[in-house]
Prior knowledge:
alpha/beta
Amino acid sequence: MARNFRIAPSILSANFAKLGDEVDKVLRAGADIVHFDVMDNHYVPNLTIGPLVCEALKKHGVTAPIDVHLMVKPVDRIIPDFAKAGATYITFHPEASEHVDRTIALIRECGCKPGLVFNPATPLDVLEYTLDKLVMVLLMSVNPGFGGQKFIPYVLDKARKVRQMIDARGLDVSLEIDGGVGPANIREVAQAGVDTFVAGSAVFGAAKDSDPNRYDTVIGALRAELAKA
């Protein structure tokens, strides 16, 4: 079945001193979604951004979907804040919620689209009961906390399993992957059933400031590989 591939640059790797301009440029270059990596220095060993940054980008004029990946524990407290700030998708890790079904419902009540995130070694069991309530499943292909890590190959097997589950139930659920994705492996990842690709270092990190078309070059390379999938 043909899939609509979407590229979601992670602003974790962007130049925060020029964040609005950076986001504008990647969207003009063909990115589809703005990906937010929200870390609390508790659930993961790093501290990043909160709802104020999301709100600032919306006020800056960003109209593309904003995909907020919550690497925080507990999650329920911060969900309404990101919804109010303009998030489109809100995804969370099941082990960071005391009541997964309730958190999914909270995201919907706040007007956002819910998704679950699975770390590389986290089992997929919870999907048996929640998949039909989700809009997105995000598979981490690195252990969360830092950008620039190498892709963990066995996550491709998980991707195939999730794609099989989605298709077997006839659901319209996006399958997203995050971590170590770039032109060298994005085609293989797509062939495993993934349709949405978070790329931080591959987009912001690989682009050279001296190249005025730097984001067009990088995103064009990703698109070219996806066209072969």
